[in-house]
Amino acid sequence: MRKLSVFNSVSLDGYFTDAKGDMSWAHKMDPEWLAFTQENSKGGGTLVFGRKTYDMMAGWWPSPMAAAAMPEVAADMNRHSKVVFSRTMDAAAWENTKLIKGDLVAEVKKLKAADGEGMVILGSGSIVAQLTAAGLIDEFQVVTSPVILGGGRTMFEGVPRAVRLTRTRTRAFENGCVFSCYEVAGG
């Protein structure tokens, strides 16, 4: 069975977007962070998005600005296979993207059962919450940024029960960010 992970940045007070939906506070450009980002982007597998995150990513990574700012990451983001879940989109134009309009939980179960490398959800808080509630996420990769937003959205709004996790690794960065990786306890 394919592994499903989440990779998101959160503020110290637990939000992955601020009250206006902005995530720019999570973007770092120092050499250590860029090296980490480049290494992460080289992995295989499928990127998974909801419509809002897809629109944001598809508006940036194929652009000449992304290629100039982060050429290796941009190339990797564009080459990866991608899945976007949306009931409202008619087509997904970003290269290597499959649009899925069906039931999220049922479709992710099919994707996990298929052959292939792992999958990682980027952003997409409502998808993260739904798939956490359904017990379909195997790993949570969270970057805690040294900022307090005072409000916004969490990745887990509406999750109906506690989900116990086991920390598998951490890494602290000079910019104050801390990367932590968790697996579902007993999973």
Rg, alpha carbons: 16 Å
In the predicted model, the low-confidence regions spanning at least 5 consecutive residues are none
**How many separate domains make up the residues?**
1
* N-to-C CA distance: 13 Å
- The arrangement of helices and strands along the chain is EHEHHHEEHEHEEE
Number of E-state strands: 8
Walk me through the topology.
Elements: E1 4-11, H1 31-41, E2 46-50, H2 51-60, H3 64-69, H4 71-79, E3 81-85, E4 97-100, H5 104-113, E5 119-122, H6 125-133, E6 139-145, E7 165-172, E8 178-184
Parallel strand pairs: 1-5, 1-6, 2-3, 2-5, 3-4
Antiparallel strand pairs: 6-8, 7-8
Concise overview:
This protein has six helices and eight strands. By secondary structure, it is of the alpha/beta class.
Q: Could you walk me through the main structural features you see in this protein, from its secondary elements to its overall organization?
A:
The chain has helices spanning 31-41, 51-60, 64-69, 71-79, 104-113, 125-133, and strands at 4-11, 46-50, 81-85, 97-100, 119-122, 139-145, 165-172, 178-184. It is an alpha/beta fold and 187 residues long. The longest helix has 11 residues, at 31-41. It has one domain: Dihydrofolate Reductase, subunit A, CATH 3.40.430.10. The two termini are 13 Å apart. It is built from six helices and eight strands. An eight-stranded mixed β-sheet has the order 4-3-2-5-1-6-8-7.
Features:
globular; alpha/beta; 6 helices; 29% helix; 187 residues; Dihydrofolate Reductase, subunit A; single chain
